[in-house]
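Supplementary Methods, section 5.1.

A reviewer requested that the exact input to the structure prediction be made available. We therefore reproduce it here, unchanged from the version used in the analyses.
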Amino acid sequence: MRRRILRLLHPLLRRAYSWWSRKPRRFRRDGLDLIVLPSVFHPGYFHSTGALSRYIRKEDLKGRTFLELGAGAGRVALTAARAGAIVTASDINPAAIENLKLNSERNQLPISVVESDLFDRLPQHFDVIAINPPYYARDPRNDIERAFFAGGGHEYFMRLFPTLAERIAHGSQVYMVLSEDVDLGSIGSIAEDHGITPVPLWVERRSGEAQFIFGFEQVLDVPAKDP
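The structure derived from this sequence is encoded token-by-token as follows.
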């Protein structure tokens, strides 16, 4: 029932969000003071970023190398930096790159910012990788939609999981947040096709929606190259 209602309301909600996010918005939470620029995924309007941020606060990150892949405005990356991690934040959206630098300076939390399509410009090893991915099965048309839509055939995950499997094989821990409103079975099947399987670690329910934090484990002996 919830999914049916969301499908009916989605066009209206999308238009409302596009209108609301047409100008910079200030967002303060958990000791962070963020500016969210237009076309950048808002880290408070949706529950997924908050769930991932709250989960990583439970982890001992001090001195560990940490990547937020697709970092948007940087809430997760800055949370990790405040916990003592050595943080890199990446995004494909140039507006997000500007936003990350702005919020790093605004909060006096140093992070390395890299404009990258997935891992294309991120050859180094990371101890921890956090991902709040686009996960709805639809083709994105612009930078705003890239934060929400993974492609009609989940092409985002088909590109992500082979490289992620290599990273996991070389010791990276991965944390990914996914909503109950998406096709978790299909996403899990794509991961398993590349030798890794999602493992549920934590669930948080807010406003009637459950957000799952998944880790990943190797399930096949897949040859891996150094990242």
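The radius of gyration is 17 Å. These observations are discussed further in the main text.
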